[in-house]
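Target chain:
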Amino acid sequence: MAIGSFLNVVAHRVPAGESVVHPPSACPACKHPIRHRHNVPVLGWLVLRGRCFDCDASVSARYPLVEAGTGLAFVLVALRLGSDGGGPRLLPAYLVFAAVSIALALIDLDVHRLPDVIVLPSYPVLAVLLALGGDGGALLRALEGAAALTLFFFVVWYVAPGGMGFGDVKLAGLVGAMTAYLTWGTFLVGAFLGFLLGAVAGVLLMAGGRAGRKTALPFGPFMVLGAWTAILGAGHLGDLYLESLGL
């Protein structure tokens, strides 16, 4: 949850080009720095009843939801990897990927951007952390998955540039690597679910009159949601499908 608190700062400041470490967090309304005792994840918001201590301005419920959601995500990642023999060695890589996924999803929802300052450094960081897992075959599979999904997204972007942004193309490599490292079935399910969830969301928004055929929807959140659905268990369906094909 403490990481989630930091991700709230990242999602707010990175799109504005501001530092994520200075100045300290402050109320957006009165600019008064938040006291340390009020900055405790989730609990601080509950104690203040969602209001600023100094000016009584409303504080969005998104802050504690992101904090609690990040804590839950980290628990699910630990439980998932704990069932694999080499899971503990992979835990740092997938916890970092979880934090990156949450930050990018929040930013894409807010400003329809996937900042290079987050996406690009994640490649070498995650590559090193995956390499520490000690599985050369899985690492090679991750590289192949990253290349395959990036190429696929690039083709989609090139053929229909209005359908997605180039930031989605750059994010595709991370999604491809982190899903393919586990199994090819996880890779296939993760890639498929990203498009399926995006399509379902678009249909529902149009049915509710909140979007039209030309409305641009942020695709990043669906990419990472599909990837994590596969990583946390749905990837086994892909494995079964590939086994049925004898692959």
